[in-house]
Amino acid sequence: MKRSIIALVLLISAVSLFAEGKQEEAGAEPVATDKLVVYSPNSDGLLKSTIPAFEKLYNVKVEVISAGTGELFKRIQGEAGSPYADVVFGGAYATFQTNKDLFQPYTSVNNDKLIDIYRNDTGYITSNVLDGSLLLVNKRLIGDIQIRGYKDLLNPALKGKIVSANPTASSSAYAHLTNMLAAIGKGDYESQEAWDFVKALFANTVVIDSSSAVWKGVRDGEYTVGLSYEDPAVQLVRDGADVKVVYMEEGVVYLPAGSAIVKGAPNLVNARRFIDHITSPEIQNVYGTAVTNRPVMANVATPSYMVNIKDIKLIKEDMDYVQKNKVAIQNRFKDIFTDIKK
After folding, report:
1. Yes or no: is domain 131-254+314-340 CATH 3.40.190.10?
2. Residue 270 to residue 33: CA distance in whole angstroms
3. pLDDT digits (tens, 9 = 90+) for 159-209
4. Are strands 35-40 and 225-229 parallel, antiparallel or unpaired?
5. Is 35-130+256-307 a domain of CATH 3.40.1000.10?
6. Sign of the torsion angle spanned by Cα atoms 182, 188, 190, 193
7. Coil, strand or helix: which one is 50?
8. At residue 112, what are phi and psi to the nearest 5 degrees?
């Protein structure tokens, strides 16, 4: 009996020591590896501006799995508990907000160098590029009409010559709608003044289904002004199209793309390095000159065909409100637009 008790005590002690060892191991600093797995919906241009430089800097082999944001997030959900990816690089910021449980905390060493309203204040989402709403103007068709911002679009001479995608179907058009509400309502998305303005503007505007058809229509001379977004509009300017971009004097909302480290990332050291990499001055300068996505660092190089962000009046979007109230905002727009068409 005594031998059995001794044997049991020894077994319990061994199990306890094993468990303690595992806890110490779990609490230890992660070890650097020679690999990183990145899930990304980003364009080839953005990936080519980022990945090779990281591989060379850290002598790491990066595996990139490219797909749409929704598909990638479903994959991460399916891999929860045994993740394959280390980092999600790119995708709508709001999608990261609503999937917090898939990611683990990390703040870039460069966070304080970013434009203050785009710094990581969530503890886990890092912004690296921005895309903003703007007005795209056909220089030949606009004539002597001055376009400085939203309010100039109420000019009766522009009736039927302004084009927008439908905010109930297009993410870029929805971004323009919430930009408009924030700018005219001075941050109050329920402001009656702002909603009255929306009604007046869309009474002057042709609404179509496709956001790409907006910038193409302005480029091709079908419309004089388009409610568009920066990436394709700036590409048109860069490529010599007979258009110009106008950043609304009432204020411009830039929406950041998100990146984050997957919870339980197998290559955690490299995942942290990658988040630091995409926010480094070196890579932010590459973004500012080699691609038409706008960097999140203010004092970086800007090509001649882009306006430096320090010269644009910025408005901070209440992304939490806009995401939670998206259906209500879209339904209110739908009611207004239906009333206009009567």
Report:
1. yes
2. 7
3. 999 999 999 988 889 999 999 999 999 999 999 999 999 999 999 999 998
4. unpaired
5. no
6. negative
7. coil
8. -70, -15
